[in-house]
Specification:
Elements lengths: L1 H12 L5 H7 L6 H13 L3 E2 L8 E2 L1 H11 L7 H12 L5 H16 L2 E8 L5 E10 L2 E8 L3 E8 L6 H15 L4 H11 L10 H7 L1 H4 L8 E4 L1 H4 L8 H12 L1 H12 L10 E4 L11 E10 L2 E10 L4 H15 L8
Antiparallel strand pairs: 1-2, 3-7, 3-10, 4-5, 5-6, 8-9, 9-10
Helix pairs in contact: 2-3, 5-14, 6-14
Length: 339
């Protein structure tokens, strides 16, 4: 009980918590001396620390972990907040990327921390249709429509001036052989699936084979969305210029943040939309050990994205977990196998 109250009081007041404060604030049927002894025992066990000689205690990362795993109330979102999330996402239509972007901003606003989101990785996305369009005598546009309404486009140079009818014929053959496979399966098996037609006269099948790792690749760039930097900077932990500079530099390295969040999700529970929480030094990289991250997966068709919150280790974990899990559930659409 004392550990739970210290954590909750420290999260609220952002300052060390003393025994007298706990006794008066929570009406404990214990003397300040008894509370002080309990806090001393918790400190000896590594759950609390004592930052100043005359100050109260603050939670350690071990204390936060014990709180999240065993002490906090089950995360529950207030109905008005859930209604707000739902009403915001109802306006998304079929524009999934816009919905993901707005979701990260909404999480930032409601948590007073940084809302983050990764658009789905297309590796597990199932190809519905490939379209190839000639843009000029030496450029082709490839449009990959993936189940769930996701679309990937890219332009490649191709030194041949093909007639639209010839492109359509080859595109039709490729769709017969590739539609219904994940992009990862296509990358791995394209050669064997097109071996008998690789020498067709347009050279397009062979070109796609040479560029298959690019055309059917993961979309690693442009996947990160975030919102709430202004709210985050109001937190006491972000008042020092060096801290702000380090954090903003971190956000500018999109490749790093994407891999950080995806590595974080690899420890996720098996059930969909459940949150995963990493606290401080639980991260494998010292660069991010001052932060806590709460994320949950969401699904669009057969693809999986990530939604979550980044902030200092001092955060309202029960509220943040409830927010993130609710947002993941609202963003999710069933996979093709479930429809």
């Amino acid at each position: 009980m004392i550990l739970r109250l210290v954590v909750e009081s420290f999260v609220d007041k952002a300052g060390p918590v003393g025994s007298r404060f706990l006794t008066k604030q929570h009406g404990l049927d214990l003397s300040p001396a008894s509370v002080r002894n309990a806090m001393s025992d918790l400190e000896d066990q590594g759950y609390l620390s004592h930052p100043y000689t005359s100050a109260g205690r603050v939670p350690t990362e071990l204390g936060y972990r014990a709180y999240v795993d065993r002490l906090m109330a089950p995360p529950q979102l207030d109905p008005p907040v859930h209604q707000l999330l739902a009403s915001q996402l109802q306006q998304r239509g079929e524009d999934h990327e816009h919905a993901v972007t707005e979701s990260s901003k909404l999480l930032g606003r409601l948590s007073n921390l940084l809302g983050v989101a990764l658009t789905p990785s297309l590796s597990t996305g199932v190809l519905e249709r490939l379209n190839i369009v000639s843009l000029s005598s030496d450029r082709l546009l490839f449009v990959l429509s993936v189940q769930g309404g996701l679309v990937r486009t890219l332009v490649l140079e191709f030194e041949a001036d093909l007639k639209p009818r010839a492109i359509d014929r080859v595109t039709s053959i490729l769709n017969e052989r590739l539609a219904g496979l994940t992009l990862q399966q296509i990358r791995e098996t394209y050669r064997t699936r097109t071996e008998d037609i690789v020498h067709e006269q347009t050279g397009l099948v062979e070109f796609v084979r040479e560029e298959s790792q690019t055309i059917f690749s993961e979309n690693t760039e442009g996947r990160l969305r975030y919102g709430g930097t202004q709210q985050l900077m109001t937190q006491p932990e972000f008042q020092e210029p060096d801290v702000i500079r380090d954090f903003m530099g971190l956000l500018e390295d999109e490749h790093y943040v994407v891999h950080w969040l995806e590595d974080h999700r690899r420890t996720a529970p098996t059930s969909s939309e459940r949150a995963t929480i990493s606290i401080g030094k639980e991260h494998s990289d010292a660069k991010v050990e001052r932060y806590s991250v709460v994320t949950a997966p969401y699904t669009i068709g057969d693809t999986v994205g990530t939604i979550g919150v980044i902030g200092p280790t001092r955060m309202k974990y029960d509220h943040i977990i409830a927010l993130v899990e609710a947002m993941a559930k609202l963003l999710s659409q069933p996979g093709a196998s479930e429809r």
